[in-house]
Design a protein that fits this description.
By secondary structure, this protein is α/β, with parallel strands linked by helices. The protein is 38% helix and 16% strand. α3 (79-96) links the parallel β3 and β4 (103-106). Bound molecules: fe (iii) ion (2 copies) and zinc ion (ZN).
Length: 276
């Protein structure tokens, strides 16, 4: 069965997200752990989490994918910003243990004039300080479009972060279709080749989630502007191939398209109809 959902608002807690997911026939979802621009997270309400876990089991709602705030930059040149990233991710991963065995996704970061090598080093340093062997959450590095000085725009860069991380068993990849397209990977005409390259460099066993977004810009544009499915340069035929590809079809898919709940419901239905 196709496992698909979208980004949901976490403002009203876990049960609220489960209800939103139910409404749009999603069987998984993504949410921000806190305000996307950072700041303090709301305290976890244990009764909300407990009720959520029951609903999730009844409705076969899994996995849940928590997304770190956008401002989290593990490879900033400013030590205070790096420290904020470390404290935020550590706190997020502690909170994730209330819902064990799920996924946590973050943008590797922007090196801002320090160079990619330094960026990769700083990101892996943070991961080495934070990841705990006993944690049950898999931490995902998101593939990036390469806008500005973003680290993670190529499979090679992501591989190097993994190689420098001691607890590499806890790491996976979240592939964002808009981002890899904008980074220059032709998932429209050469999906098989791109996935073979991913397998050679990183290994498909690391691939744990797909962000399903069309792109407002042509391949290689390094822009990162999401479009609704079929309204961008990637197009519906490519998304049909992506959700049905043998290497991808059993992964969870998350929409981050510019939509309200009813728009997400339509895209979820569209992808369910496109499932082979
Ligand atoms: Fe993201
Ligand atoms: Fe994404
Ligand atoms: Zn994006």
């Amino acid at each position: 069965m196709l496992r698909i959902g979208c980004h949901l608002s976490s403002a009203k807690g876990y049960v609220s997200m489960a209800r939103q997911a139910e409404k749009i026939h999603a069987n998984t979802f993504q949410f921000f752990t806190r305000n996307p621009r950072g700041g303090n997270a709301k305290d976890i309400d244990p009764s909300d989490v407990k009720a959520f876990l029951d609903i999730a089991e009844t409705n076969d709602l899994s996995p849940i994918l928590a997304h770190a705030p956008y401002t989290l930059n593990a490879c900033s040149a400013d030590p205070a910003i790096r420290d904020f990233a470390r404290r935020t991710m550590k706190d997020d991963l502690t909170r994730m243990e209330y819902t064990p065995g799920n996924l946590y996704n973050f943008h590797p970061g922007s090196h801002v004039k320090q160079g990619t090598d330094t960026g990769i080093l700083l990101i892996s340093q943070m991961l080495n300080e934070i990841l705990q062997p006993e944690q049950t959450t898999t931490v995902l590095l998101e593939t990036m479009s390469g806008k500005g000085s973003e680290v993670g725009k190529s499979f090679e860069e992501l591989r190097r972060i993994i190689d420098l991380t001691e607890q590499e068993k806890l790491l996976g990849i979240c592939l964002d279709t808009c981002h890899v397209w904008d980074a220059g990977y032709d998932i429209v005409n050469r999906l098989d080749e791109v996935l073979t390259e991913f397998d050679t460099i990183i290994g498909l066993k690391r691939l744990k989630a797909i962000h399903l977004n069309d792109s407002q810009n042509p391949m290689g544009s390094h822009k990162d502007r999401h479009a609704r499915l079929g309204e961008g340069y990637i197009g519906l035929d490519a998304f049909k191939r992506i959700i049905n590809h043998p290497a991808l079809r059993n992964l969870p898919f998350y929409l981050e398209t510019p939509n309200e709940l009813d728009g997400y419901a339509k895209e979820i239905q569209l992808m369910r109809e496109a499932r082979d």
